[in-house]
Design a protein that fits this description.
By secondary structure, this protein is an all-alpha fold. It contains six helices and no strands. Helix 2 runs antiparallel to helix 3. 6% of the residues are buried.
């Protein structure tokens, strides 16, 4: 029972920790740690490469100095052969020069082996640093993609939550009520317009009836009769006779 209680409490603790953990922040921290490792690897690579270069230079210098001692021994023997130097002395000095040459060659071989070892280490470190750099670049690109996806997902989640919270039935009911009110206002406006038009039409008919305006053709006929001296009333059978 105690074991089961411990497992339950442990699972609850893990659940709480998971809620507090931010995957993006944790990944950013991991990339920062990886960058530190990359910088440390670069420093180590530079140090090993520096040692390899220095060791190779020292080995080359020892080899060059060994050749110089060999050349000096040859010159001493040539001088002894020409008689410009005592043979015993020349051979003694030449032997010393050859001893120095032997020491230098031994040192050259040792440093050559060390230089080769350092150069091999440089190649291995260079490959590992390049691999670490490629991994770091991949992680950074993936993090940028995940950040963009996380923002999109958060925005989509927020929009979906807002849409889910909308009271569709209530909104539709409000729109229907507003539609009915607008239709009532439009009908009332049309009614007022018809009333105003009818009143205007009645006034117009009354004014037209009150006007004693002759048609244009009748006016021209009257003017013609006046020029001819014809009395309009005399031509009218129903009109009373007018004596001059």
């Amino acid at each position: 029972m105690l074991k089961r209680l411990f497992n339950i409490s442990k699972s609850n603790v893990h659940a709480v920790i998971d809620q507090f953990e931010d995957p993006i922040k944790m990944t950013e921290q991991g990339i920062r740690d990886l960058k530190k490792d990359h910088e440390a690897a670069m420093r180590s690579l530079a140090q090993v490469k520096s040692i390899a270069i220095r060791t190779r230079k020292e080995a080359t210098a020892k080899q060059r100095l060994a050749r110089e001692y060999e050349d000096k021994a040859k010159l001493l023997l040539l001088k002894a052969g020409k008689g410009s130097l005592d043979t015993v002395e020349a051979e003694r000095l030449a032997t010393m020069a050859l001893d120095e040459q032997s020491k230098l060659l031994t040192e050259n071989q040792r440093q050559d082996r060390e230089a080769k070892g350092h150069e091999t280490m440089v190649k291995d470190l260079d490959i590992k640093v390049a691999r670490l750099r490629a991994t770091l670049t991949t992680y950074e690109n993936e993090l940028a993609t995940l950040k963009a996806r996380a923002k999109t997902a958060a925005s989509t989640k927020k929009i979906n939550a807002q849409l889910a919270a909308i009271d569709t039935s209530g909104t539709i009911a409000m729109l229907e009520r507003m539609k009915e009110r607008v239709e009532e206002d439009e009908s009332l406006a049309s009614a007022y317009g018809e009333i105003a038009a009818r009143e205007t039409s009645v006034d117009k008919e009354i004014d037209q009836a009150l006007e004693e305006k002759k048609p244009e053709a009748s006016a021209r006929l009257e003017q013609l009769k006046q020029r001819m001296g014809i009395d309009s009333q005399a031509m009218d059978p129903g009109a009373p006779a007018i004596t001059r």
